[in-house]
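Example complex used in Figure S2.
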Amino acid sequence: MSPLSFHPALAGFGGAIEFIFSPQSTNVTGGKKVGGIHQVLELSLAQIEVSVFALVLAMLIAIPIGLYFGHKGTGELIAIGIGNAGRAVPELALIALMAAVIGVGVFNLTIALAVLGIPPILTNTFVGIRQVDRASTEAARGVGMTEFEVLRKVELPMAVPSIMSGVRTSSINIIATATIAPLAGVLTLGNFVLNENVYGVNGVLAGAIVVAVIALIFEFGLAGLQRRLTSKGLRLRPE
Amino acid sequence: MASPLPLAAVGQVGENFFKERNSETLGCVAHPSHFFCFDWAREHIGEYGTPTLQQLELVVISVLIGFAIAFALALLAHRFRYLQPPLLAGTGILFAIPSVAFFLLLLPITGRGRETAIVALSAYTLQIIYRNVMVGLHNVPDSAKDAARGMGLTERQILWKVEIPLAIPEIVAGLRVAMVSTMAIATLAVLVHAGGLGEKILGRANLTFPTTIVLAGGIAIVMALLLDALLLVVQRLTTPWRRVEATV
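Predicted assembly (487 residues):
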């Protein structure tokens, strides 16, 4: 008796773990096996790919805009407003709408995910720059730095924790939404989740577990990146 | 190797999901490029009442539960410093698990239905509010606390009369974020058979009919923004001296 069968809940997880690693037979396609490590890795890779592209795209768009407006000090209403509005959009509706109106495919999906990922990064970048100590920026200008140098050497390093926090939030949202990407014709781990009649409860659970693991890996990676990017002087401050 | 996935196949997600038939949308299918079909919407708006209420119920209950637990935990951690690292790590891990995965991971433990959705949504709310309460309490100026001690207030009085009132802007800002995010995520409650507006999006036979999606998503967004505005009023009323924006 495997220890996992002691409790019905754990048994459910046991089934899911099996699903991840070895192909199972299924009651629908009769004879064709589903699951197994190859399929899981293939779908995981698709999900990670599309998530990374979307996240990088979102960062490339949101960070410069946030830096510019944060430094200038204008556009607060828009930056915060976009953040609020972005939080309110249900991911399911966004993906389904994109699939119905614009069309399916990896390209459209990446754009949609990037659009989803921009608000947290934009808001956090903006607020991060705005919250930089006035005395520091004044001192920098007093020393003779140009506006761009002030941004680059003083404001940006001090805003890194806030920006990275936004990036981390974005990455989790993007990975979560990439999970329901099969609605847009892109096969990711959501394939297991959305088609219970094909993959069974084990498949659904397996999909959820692998998505959670991927998200945790991203989170650790980005947390490590944040620690690397935060200049030593700031690290002493409790975050 | 991977199974083909035309959109129609996804419509066969589980028996309970496959409810309506194509003939209902015939009136508007004639113009497939139309974003939104007002006639269809007018006719069928009644169907959206139950899912909307279901979703609202889920969100309000989850936010209340999440807030209660997070507040209690934060007060404990504020008092007993040694609790902070484990609680921070715990909420950090909760934060990293995407909403979709969290819903489903609970399936073997709490089964299908509203309880599962409430647990998942409460957990999500919990980490947002916990962090905001901690930051709010942390940001209370020491001078205020010293002055209170000087006036002879006990520690408990200081907590309730000085620290918490000064932390309210941060806490309400966190509540706003939690409310809006939870409303958006609650759309996915349909994945654990808990109802909600997601039912309207996934439950259609014809998934390429934009009107249902726009309606369901639009209602969710409007509800979220209304709740946000409501809490904004509360925030302004309770903190006439300061404006705070949450960054999560």
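Chain A has ten helices and two strands. The CA atoms of residues 39 and 211 of chain A lie 14 Å apart.
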